[in-house]
Amino acid sequence: MDNEFRLLHVARMIVSDVNRLLDSPNYRLFYAEQLREAAGSITSNIREAYGRRQGRERNQFFRFARGSAEETDERLRGNFRARRVPAAPFWRIHNRVAVVVKMLNALMKE
Q1: Among the listed ranges 7-16, 34-43, 64-73, 101-110, which one has the minimum average pLDDT value?
Q2: Domain covering 3-23+31-109: architecture
Q3: Residue 62, class by beta-carbon neighbours within 10 Å (0-12 exposed, 13-18 middle, 19+ buried)?
Q4: How many CB atoms lie within 10 A of CB 102?
Q5: Is the pTM of this model over 0.85?
Q6: Where are the domains of the chain?
Q7: Which of 8, 42, 71, 105 has a 20 to 30 Å separation from 52 between CA atoms?
Q8: Would you tell me how many other CB atoms lie within 10 Å of the CB of residue 74?
């Protein structure tokens, strides 16, 4: 699996995890719609980046994706600290976000 596909795959797992969490009747999360939109924006901006030529233009969309990933993590962290998200889904999503951010940083250096 090449790095571009791996990045998109992990980002899509984040979106699925966030949607599953938000759609569960067991949890009432703060900033639910902002969390959903931020997570969805990660994959949208990665796809947009791959539609651009390499360099500054592509990196701009990778930066947008990284910002959305950081926002997703921050919204999720707030819910975790308020005990609205259990540890297992929090850490799974948090760790995936960390991987996506590292991959985006590496791609912007190329």
Answers
A1: 101-110
A2: Up-down Bundle (1.20)
A3: buried
A4: 12
A5: yes
A6: 3-23+31-109
A7: 71
A8: 14
